[in-house]
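Friendly challenge for the regulars: who can give me the structure tokens for this chain first? No prize, just bragging rights.
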Amino acid sequence: MHTYKKILVAIDFSDYGNLVAKQARFITDTFQAELHVIHVLDNIPMPDTPYGALITLDQPSEDLLLQAEKNKFTQICDAMHIAPANRWLIWGVPQEEITRFAMQEKMDLIIVGSHGRHGLTALLGSTAKNVIFHAECDVMTVHLRDDQ
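First reply, four minutes later:
Bragging rights claimed.
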């Protein structure tokens, strides 16, 4: 059986974030692993910043949208008791940055939420699906349902 030492949970700021975080904490505690949290900024403009750029969390930003994202991310990480050194806020395309970061940091497991939708969403793809197909480590999906 594979033992996980470094686990990366990818979070967004949806209503399902707590469920994914709880599952990640449970798996991390079960394996006595180190938990890292990543959030990829893809919904706010980041002028003059290349994809894959790490956003510093310990310095305030003059950009109000960016500061709001940083504040939300910090609150979530604080609630999860994540060490500041294990918090990663990155600018880019979520599926690309999650898999790139996991490979770069030699993660053993990535945990992501997935709605498991079909039809048009399945044809266009999702972050979870793309992470599953491109990750070089194990990926666990937390099935998200509207009735949770």
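The longest helix spans residues 64-79. The longest strand covers residues 34-41. Your move, everyone else.
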